[in-house]
Amino acid sequence: MQFNNLLVQKENNLAILTINRPAALNALNADTLHELGQAIQMLTEDQEVKVIILTGAGEKAFVAGADIAFMQQLDPIAARQFALTGQMVFNQIESCPKPVIAAINGYALGGGCELAMACDIRIASEKAKFGQPEVNLGVIPGFAGTQRLARLVGKGKAKELIFTGDMIDAQEAYQIGLINQIVPHDQLMDQTKKMGLKIASKALVAVQLAKRAINEGLEMPLEQANYHEANYFGLCFATNDQKEGMAAFLAKRPPQFQGK
Ligand code: CAA
After folding, report:
1. Pocket flag, ligand 1, residue 64 (CB < 6 Å)
2. From atom 13 of ligand 1, which residue's Cα is the shortest distance away?
3. Domains of the chain listed by start with CATH number
4. Which family does it belong to (predicted)?
5. Is the pTM of this model over 0.95?
6. Interface pTM (ipTM) of the complex?
7. Is 134 a catalytic residue?
8. What is the pLDDT of residues 40-85, one digit of tens each?
């Protein structure tokens, strides 16, 4: 599949999906969002791909937000639809059965911070900067930033960031729990691929069910979520990889997982 605003590369069991509009700091317009949705669908169905890495083209930005030039003339109905489209694509990333890791190479602002938050794991260059600067434009976050930021860093810090529009550096983003790791800028892709390959080497169904258990469970009361986890735990015992993983441990040899 050919894309105008994205690059897709595959290596080993990883897919690297790059938002490729560097002249606009990879800002998200409706076309880019639609392509992102199509690419995620394509990679979800691709049996060779076990982990997806999402990054931005160029040295400066992961994604500097929704495209302001595109949004400027929208009427309220079209703006609402644009927000819903972004939310739908980001939900698709969040619920994609395969782990999605954001490799944050620079600015992750507005829709860019929201995109990173829809990923499972966030690894950032030491040069990365984060923020929800929408109030500077007379709007609020529209791609679920009010919700995902509050869930990730807590209500108080989310309100501070969203009300002030302040940008924070990678160090502060790490301290508040917005990102998982900070790495030297020139090691970002290597370190992200290293984590991707580590995850790809594990029992595939177990990783996928763990993602579901965490995401779905967080929307449930604890007792129900724990029961849900037990159901997925039981389901793992229907896989060859559970038999192999436990047999390999007891035989003191590395497991040979088949992904089923
Ligand atoms: N939309 C459209 N174009 C953008 C953009 C955006 N979000 N961010 C940057 N660009 C464009 C600039 O207009 C500029 O284009 P030209 O070269 O044609 O003038 C180019 O990218 C480079 O940007 P700058 O010259 O501004 O680069 P800089 O290094 O001086 O500043 C920056 C970098 C601080 C990230 C600055 O570009 C900036 O503040 N960008 C906007 C960030 C923002 O407000 N994001 C939130 C958008 S709203 C949103 O996302 C809503 C939502 O939740 C759905």
Report:
1. yes
2. 24
3. 6-200 (3.90.226.10), 204-250 (1.10.12.10)
4. Belongs to the enoyl-CoA hydratase/isomerase family.
5. yes
6. 0.99
7. yes
8. 999 999 999 999 999 999 999 999 999 999 999 999 999 999 999 9
